[in-house]
Amino acid sequence: MVLPERREEIISSAVTTIVVMVVAVLSPADAWKQPLLRLFDTLVGIAIGVAGKWIASFAFYRVRGEPIR
């Protein structure tokens, strides 16, 4: 994260790596599932964020009486 100059994301990357490694140590037989579950969690979070933004924008423009953009 230092080389691509994304210093604000160093802690997030470190925490993600630590969580995956700890879970892999606790249940080594199913360690291969953890990255897939993390990907699924991320995709669900993105979908919820996009849906929330869409709903908020729709409500905002409805209240203001402007056409929806």
Write up this protein.
With 69 residues, this protein is an all-alpha fold. The protein folds into two domains: 1-29; 32-69, no CATH class. The protein has two helices and no strands.
Secondary structure layout:
Layout: H1 10-26, H2 33-64
Contiguous runs where pLDDT drops below 50 for at least 5 residues: none
**Elements, N to C (H/E):** HH
**Beta-strand level of the residues, as a percent range?**
under 5%
Number of domains: 2
Please describe the structure with a list of short key phrases separated by commas or semicolons.
69 residues, 71% helix, mainly alpha, elongated
In short:
The protein has 69 residues and is an all-alpha fold.
